Amino acid sequence: MRGTALLSGLLLMFLIPFEAGARDAYASWDNRCEECHGDADEFSRSFLWAIDGQLQGQHHVDNLRLFMGNHYIPEHQIEAIYDMLLAQANTLARFENECSSCHDSAEAFVRKSIATRISGIAGVESGVPVLEFLQTHQNLQPADAEFFMKLITRVLDDISRP
Fold first, then answer.
1. Helix axis angle, 25-32 to 40-47, nearest 10°
2. How many domains does the chain have?
3. Of 4, 5, 41, 144, most Cβ neighbours within 10 A?
4. Up-side HSE of residue 43: CA atoms within 13 Å toward CB?
5. How far is CA 82 from CA 54, 71, 137, in A?
6. Residues 6+ away with beta carbon under 8 Å from 79
């Protein structure tokens, strides 16, 4: 009995990352949507809009989630992708315009350079909290540092959604 409980516990430990990874909105988009629709950031800013907190597009304006479910997206991934696209539709392309020449896309940057710590999010190599670093990076003004902090936090949430 004790061995069965231990084995069950170990199996759960190994299964949790697979479930969390299945809700990685960027990976889901890249695997399901990118081939036809291109980059998620560009797609959302070009073809989608938010009205009263709801994402809308040219297809199924009243229920974009239903359209997504009928458009090759598994049910357990719809909310993650929907929320990512909603946030992107409302976000200026500042990372692409101001940061991508050094840092590639926001998604690639966060995957490579940002880590979650007990104290918050920080640089992988330096361990410096992101907001603290941003306040000294490229002469960013406080409002700019706050904007990029929110963007980095959102992308991290989209990548590691439980």
1. 80
2. 2
3. 41
4. 20
5. 9, 13, 32
6. 65
Global pTM value: 0.78
By DSSP bridging, strand 114-117 and strand 120-123 are: antiparallel
Question: Distances in Å between the alpha carbon of 84 and those of 67, 120, 125?
Answer: 16, 21, 27
pLDDT tens-digit series, residues 29-67: 999 899 999 999 999 999 998 888 889 888 766 788 888
Reference 94, options 108, 84, 85, 105; nearest CA is 105
Cβ atoms of 88 and 47 within 8 Å: the answer is no
Question: DSSP strand E in the chain: where?
Answer: 49-51, 54-56, 114-117, 120-123
**For residue 29, what are the domain limits?**
24-90
In a domain, 10, yes or no: no
